[in-house]
């Protein structure tokens, strides 16, 4: 069976986003700095970037699709990624608001799932076939799958930035046992893969 | 000039010790589990363990020497490490209580410094000669040197444990810029060396 993976970039003090997230600054203050490794040194982290993009289906939380707050959800919002999102695969968005599937260019179709994380996973597995299902984020969605024992591999990309505030990835995640299976670094990030033990 | 280094083991959620530190449990609940890499797989992390023990002088906080609370400080306390502590070098203990130097077996002498972190560093540099000065801990002492711009290299040993509470290393450390210079992992820990930029 395909695996359930999750790639997340965190600050050295454990934040996935800085303080004061907003529509203008969806990653919060200084949150963009966490992702320098994906933009400034793509070659140095080519394998990890490829790993993020190779899943057969993705699952994301409502905030990752539409941002915090009431926002533009009911106004024909088509995501943050322009007309050709980078997923090139079905993306299952967890939400309480029903909506018809939204087909974008390049193979990405957003499906809106209103009956919970297990249903989203079943649908994503079906869509992914033999390929992996990736939990795309945000942190709250990742925590839900991790806490529920529904994730096989957590891949942390640990930035050297110290944000000092914001949304922490692992707070309240509960009793989870992780085993490091691979670690390597560049001048901008430390990549660590963890197997989630059941 | 010799460098100022600091080795610290942290949980994946950023804690150096679990909740409810006490004389019986100086690392707090489940805090001992962070250090499994130093006891269960010494060979796999031999270089890092050697790195911890090669300094020419050490600096530690009062709590690391004597534990939290009023404790046994004035009762002839000789540290946690038995008659032959593992430092084999001068150790400068930051405290508000004057006390005569305490010579132990194997070359460790505890010196008690009452006039602050810069004085302790000057004395440790003098004692270390060409060798490095290591900030031995605890977290509060490490933060003080880091925030004051007096540390050259921070070496984090990131355990896969999630403690969910306790004392966090980097909370309140302020505006510090770190550059990862080496990362590698074992099945129990991820070792990352950071250069502290001035």
UniProtKB/TrEMBL annotation, chains A, B:
Gene3D superfamilies named among the record's database cross-references: Dihydrofolate Reductase, subunit A
Domain Bacterial bifunctional deaminase-reductase C-terminal per the UniProt entry, residue ranges: 4-186
Protein name: Dihydrofolate reductase
Domain of life where this protein originates: Bacteria
């Amino acid at each position: 069976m395909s695996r359930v993976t999750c790639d997340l970039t965190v600050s050295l003090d454990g934040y996935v986003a800085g303080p004061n997230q907003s529509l203008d600054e969806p990653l919060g203050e200084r949150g963009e700095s966490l992702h320098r490794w994906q933009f400034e040194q793509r070659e140095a982290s080519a394998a990890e970037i490829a790993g993020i993009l190779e899943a057969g289906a993705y699952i994301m939380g409502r905030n990752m699709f539409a941002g915090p707050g009431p926002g533009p959800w009911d106004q024909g919002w088509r995501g943050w990624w322009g007309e050709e999102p980078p997923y090139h695969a079905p993306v299952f968005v967890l939400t309480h608001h029903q909506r018809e599937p939204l087909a974008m260019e390049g193979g990405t179709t957003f499906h809106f799932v209103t009956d919970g994380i297990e249903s989203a996973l079943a649908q994503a597995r079906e869509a992914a076939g033999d390929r992996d299902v990736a939990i795309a984020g945000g942190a709250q969605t990742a925590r839900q799958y991790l806490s529920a024992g529904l994730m096989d591999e957590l891949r942390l990309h640990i930035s050297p930035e110290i944000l000092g505030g914001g949304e922490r990835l692992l707070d309240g995640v509960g009793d989870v046992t992780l085993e490091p299976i691979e670690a390597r670094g560049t001048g901008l990030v430390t990549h660590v893969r963890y197997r989630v033990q059941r």
